[in-house]
Queue: 3 jobs
Job 1
Amino acid sequence: MSILKKAIVGALISTALLAQGAQAADKKIALVVKALGIGFFEAAADGAEEAAKEIGDVELIYTGPTDTTAEGQIDVINSLIAQKVDAIAISANDPDALVPALKRAMQRGIKVVSWDSGVAPEGRMVHLNPSSNPLIGNMIIKLAADNLPDGGDVAVLSASATATNQNIWIEEMNKVKGDYPGVEVVATVYGDDLFDKSYRETQGLIQSYPDLKAIIAPTSVGVVAAAQAVTDEGKIGEINVTGLGLPSEMAAYVENGASKSFAIWNPIDLGYAAVMLSNDLIEGAEAEPGAELSMGRLGMLTLDDDNAGAMADPFVYDKSNIDQFKDIF
């Protein structure tokens, strides 16, 4: 990770993984994230590096814009097209705005995989969901409801209003909220995956909803910001923060009681799988409904009618296991 942490923000970060000396790598695979400097994506980059080393003869390019905008990612995509990469694996800031640029990439023979946050089907060949969308939607409200035996008001702090994955998970959550009697979702606000904005949005929720019992943040930036705001506002024990987060970033809030539990898939595995799928496509695998593509040590990804598939179920972290994982990611 040190090679990533030293990167100049906005620059392309390239790690050449070569089989012999100065020989040029056979393949260039780009892992494009929503924005640089986010712990979740840096952990995914570790997994991507693992996959590139396992494949061999791969130059891995880890890159993204400085903020979570479609415009920033389009600039990155155009740069990668100019570099003639073999594959782009992207976590999208907007499902539709990236399509024209990614279509140009595919027209030039570049394999395109979306992962984590999807691209519309016409703009990619394969989408890797970190988990099943219905399972994630159910999980995030269940984490709140499990600590509300008598029900109560719950609010959602999402990333951007156009984030594909966030919107799908919230939609799935709303489908099953009736399964949790007494739990009422009173608001959804957006922090744009920026800590300061997410913090301010949480303060606004606390002020606007005096009976608020839980905040669900299905974003690794938002859940930390919300937990910090609840801590600073003296609301530990009154408002439980849950959602999707990194053990390394949430450990302090589990320990101080601001968060009783949260969930996440392993981002290391997600980055690993995205690169493995990209390589399988480069090697000639067909992206079509029913096909099985290799995720290396994670097994096979079976594609549905939209050429999408799920990696794994989300995993719950709490006081019983947080210490086992907080130093890993």
Job 2
Amino acid sequence: MISVGIIGGSGYTGKKLIRFCAAHPFIEEYKIYGNNSAGGKICDIFPELNEVIENSVIESIENVSYEHDAYFIALPHGEALNYVPALFERGKKIIDLGGDYRLNSPELYSKWYGKKHNSPLLLKEKIYGLADYSGTDYSEKNFVANPGCYPTAVLLSLLPVVKSFKDKILSVSVAAYSGTSGAGKTPKLELLMSEMDGDVSAYKLNSHQHQPEILQQLNEAGFDSPFSFAAHLLPAAVGIYATSFIHLKSSVEEKELKNAFEEFYKDSPFIRLREAPPHLNWVTGTNFCDINFSMKDKIIIITSAIDNLIKGAGGQAMQNMNKLFGWDEKSGILNQGVKNVQIY
């Protein structure tokens, strides 16, 4: 049994982490650390959790204990830099849900996040935790950089094709859509329902910080072709929907493509290959990624859907913690005897 610290546990992702920790068979206790929420009680912030979890007091982030076995860090970009080095030095298990350690280069981090990296050596010590990607070795590792929500949906779509057919790829372009919860809890005028209702718009074209993260992982898998990524905002609270267009030099058989996906995800309990393009509401409230592909001539179109707060954040983080400890990766997410843990 272990003790867990959640640093930044009063946001949308923090609520998911709390629910997963409360449902986990090997977590004996967990403590929440916050900034403005410090001193308050969890159920005052999340009334829906009343009588579901223990209504404990949120500790100040200034008084983070180093006595826990594992830590989830769910802070805005740049703030994990204040905690990760000390935790790593003490040999703690760390899962950082922000973007501070996802990129392999401190120069790339500075370019896309506008901050100087204070612990560049740790970029080589981290695991990029795309949890359903079986090529990652978690043995003898303590530190996971949890992928972003867009990269999770996009990479899970593209990696099987890149691994099997990279020499045939001419180019890849992606149009991806996110619910407003991806922007966090801080109020913003443009995210009000009266502003968002009935509207869709692209944003951060050629400047989204998830673009180099996606390309970095594709390159590591052998991809070396033109790539474009366009993010859009949906009038919905939760979800990521990605449509990827792969142009090939020569066509592949649909059976080959199907075999590539099935082989790639044969041991992945949270990947569901669909016969038709998924709907966003099939995955909201779950840790699943639903994927569909369509092949015609020399073009592959892949659609994928995830819950950005779960598969794109807290659920994948729990998978990564399970992998660090060598436990069943479904623990705390889908427990034995529980059909579906309530995580709304």
Job 3
Amino acid sequence: MMNVQIVTDSCAHFTTPHFLQQYPSVMVVPNRLTFAGKTYRDGIDLPLEEALRQIGSQPYAPVIASPTEADFVEAFTRASQGADAIISIHASREMFKSYQNGLAAARQLSGHCPIVVIDSQTLCAAQGILVRVAATAAETEKNLDDVVRIVRGAIERVYTIYSVENIPYLLQNKLMTPSRGVLSTILGIKPFLSVEHGYLTVMEKVRTRAQAVDRLVEFVVEFADVDEVVILQHKSHITEQTRMVQDRLAVDFAGQFVPFMMYSTTMAALVGLDATGVVVFEKEFEAMDDDDF
């Protein structure tokens, strides 16, 4: 069996507790957050709950800086010790520079072990799911090409939407135009964002929280064969909106509990607090043999 090490940035957010203990082959290179004149390493200098608390106390969105090329050179050098190959999974290149920096670092170390750099085309829990897919495949597959194929296939099966309350953060991050932001504020409209082709974009709007719950539930039930569903929120204890989504999904997915978790510091920096998201990981389609007909 190959020894494949997995590297990612801290935009990735893992849906299971103690993930890094469960998968010691995974290494996370931290983003840097700057707000209130100070810079912190994401997940190291500031735990998630403290980071969200500080974000909530600031009038402006923090600045997120991806790991540098030098950061990835150091990470790849450490990961390569005893490894047969490295797979590096990065936040969407359309939103962050992690992929470009990882690619440049991999070129510097081309004489070491093989390094495959992958654009996840997403972030937060969806990116974390892809990291888990890679770590699991690395334990079972016999060659690097098969692991990479499985990860790239999974990218096409992970979907995310968010119901967002914080219009100022969307404006600061240029996820919404000023004119649409003013109109949404005046009319009390809550935007919905989706991650599509690596971009976080406004897809539609609703007027009430009840309508937001309806749309989140509708999004999930559109999928015929679901492997995993996770609700994302900004608090460690369950919010009323999350509870409503859980209750509705319990009817459509009888016997399947849909967990919730806090979304990442990166997502909070993009959409602010008081957002509710849903990540769906669709099961892999299995082609039928002729004998099945």
